[in-house]
Amino acid sequence: MTSLHVAQRSAALRAMFGDALLAGDALTSGGETPIPGVVVRPLTVNRDRRGTLTELLREDWADVFGDDLPFAQAYASVTVPGTARDEDRWHLHRRQTDRFVCLAGRLVVAVADARSESPARGKLLLIDLTAGEDAPAPAMVTIPPGTLHGLVALGETPATLLNFPTRRYDASDEERVAFADAGITVTNGTPFSWDLVRGAIGLR
Question: What is d(CA 53, CA 135) in angstroms, rounded to the nearest whole number?
Fold first, then answer.
């Protein structure tokens, strides 16, 4: 892709999503985001002649692990390129915190604050997690209870997500909220959709 195409794509993303997109340097700087409780923690890839090693979760990472953020289970999912998990609705937990890592491929994770007491209510955040050829994406995303979230696989290969949720699977803690009913909009006031993300990135 030429530098002109990159610049045009960046301009389209800024026009559609404003400051909602975190990618590149924003991921590696890490830390708290504009949505309280959403943490983007940088991951360090250690390389040598044998390959790479990346620590994904440690008990001394207080921003993503602790008494209020315990380990309960781990699972991996693989998503086909161009596909969103829940195409027309948000995912929501009332008690569980998710910790997302992209092991392979490219995922864009969307998080929106639907908590009535939050100062960031209505805020949208898109986190671009693109894995390297020999390592996971350079950050873990922590998604707290009460926030709407979802993901879409972009790029040309399937994307592999690893999640370290704070609770074992509990169907009663899973909810779905239709995009049309959530009140989450992009810069021009249009309701959020994955088609807007695909279009801004150049996939449709």
Answer: 8
Q: What is the mean pLDDT of residues 12-25?
A: 76
* Region of residue 125 (phi > 0: left; psi between -120 and 50: alpha; otherwise: beta): beta
Pairing of strands 124-130, 21-22: parallel
The CATH number of 19-192 is 2.60.120.10
Helix, strand, or coil here: 201? helix
pLDDT recorded at residue 140: 97
Which of 146, 107, 148 lies closest to 125, judged by CA?
148
Contact 79, 158 (CB under 8 A): yes
**Count of beta carbons in the 10 Å neighbourhood of residue 63:** 14
pLDDT band at residue 29 under the 50/70/90 scheme:
confident
- Please name the residue that has the structure tokens 């994770």: 109
3-state secondary structure of 136: coil
The pLDDT of residue 203 is above 80: no
Within 10 angstroms of residue 43's Cβ, the number of other Cβ atoms is 18
Q: How far is CA 67 from the centre of its chain?
A: 23
- The answer to whether the predicted template modeling score (pTM) of the entire model surpasses 0.85 is yes
Residue matched to tokens 């002649």 = 49
Report yes or no: 98 and 39 within 8 Å, Cβ to Cβ.
no
Structural domain spans, the chain:
19-192
